[in-house]
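Form 7-S
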Amino acid sequence: MGKIRYSSRLRRALRICRWAGMLAAILLGWLFVRPGAAQDRLNVVFILADDLGWGELGCYGQQKIPTPNIDRLAAQGMRFTQHYSGAPVCAPSRCVLMTGKHLGHAEIRSNMQARRLLPQFDEGQYPISEKAVTIAELFQKAGYATGAMGKWGLGPVGSTGDPNRHGFDLFFGYNCQSVAHSYYPPHLWRNSERIIINRRPIPGHQKQPEGEVKMEDYVSENYAPDLMIEEAIRFLEANAGRPFFLYLPFIEPHVAMHPPIERVNRFPVEWDKEVYRGECGYLPHPRPRAAYAALINELDEYVGRVLAALDRLGISDKTLVIFSSDNGTTLPHAGSDHFHVGGVDAEFFHSTAGLRGWKGSVYEGGIRVPTIVRLPGRIPAGTVNDTPSYFADWFPTLCEAAGFTIPEDLDGDSLWPLLVGQGTFQRRKPLVWVFPESGGQVAVRMGDWKVVRRNLKARQPGEWELYDLATDPGETKNLAKEHPQIIQQAKEVLRQETAENPVFPLDLKLDS
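Output:
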């Protein structure tokens, strides 16, 4: 075939087209693959404490335990005064956070070991399903690096709830909440690999009725929280040049209490007049008050390390940082008149700051949690927000912050307008908790009204309770008899907002 010849006019036109194509390619490359382009997208770090009480941070009134890094975070961002966890205990609270569905619709509504119904698993909690969609999955699909370091609790490795099946490129930490009762466990998980970290692990539960209780008897080779924070810092360093979503569900200050000895020794010896011998579960400790303070102070140090890494990497101003807790502080125990579960002295630390109830309760002390949000240049520094909000709101909030389409089946509402002062925040429906544990409990918050009912599993359920939180945040005066119409409204909300869940059933008894 002979060589094709073009006219001079056509050759000029082709040259123009080639130059135009090259220019278009350059522009597209500049827009999508130029150095630093990925950094223009918002990063997210979500830090979740474990059983941290409403009053256990300096910025929420704590007087005995120093928390300078979290207090600095509050000074640089927005502190919420009426933010609620997803549930009064660990696993369901995390389910609400990850899926954006309140306890009336959540797949996981209480703590349950997977092996109870799925005997093929030797550790881990009952799993969320394959069809459950987490906020991490949306970030992953959008090209974000996704990591989780800490405690999972939503399904064993290899189950439908495996974190690698729900949006996390990297998971490192405790898959199982029960294993997380020990700070010196036999192993942690890196994705599907079981990593042995202690040849002589320390069990999370043990009593010592007699003899001297020594801190050194409950120490082993590797302290798991230190390994997890190191992994978190490596994740930040490795992904500073691209958008990322980092979930840090730390285990502090959940018992058992056995922080490193040098951290306990930072606190006054005079605090502890009585040795804790394990009579309220978990591990003994010779200085329980100092040990508990050390755990919270340790949590604060880890937060400080994350913030320092963001500063060092030059990405603080493009990283949304959220800090919260999965539920309130540890509840009382029949084994002692002052020690709570695990030896915590919540009265000494004024852990609920006057709120009623503890972990496991839908009263304020069980579900109102300290919550702080920072994004320099977008969220005004040193602000306080008293809008009622809860864990179900974070899924739509993060969607709006990152520019994702918000799924239609979520229960929460985006807090983004509140955070950045753009637009108007509107609550579509009341806040709802349907909790089968601790005798069966429900709660509904509608404006300043909060409706509670307990002991739903008892032959004679508890009476309906109604509190005006605007005037009675301690829930001391039951106004149910004065306002029966509010109780009826709450019943209707529960009727509409509670789907059947055969794994975690609860008869709401709405006709009584």
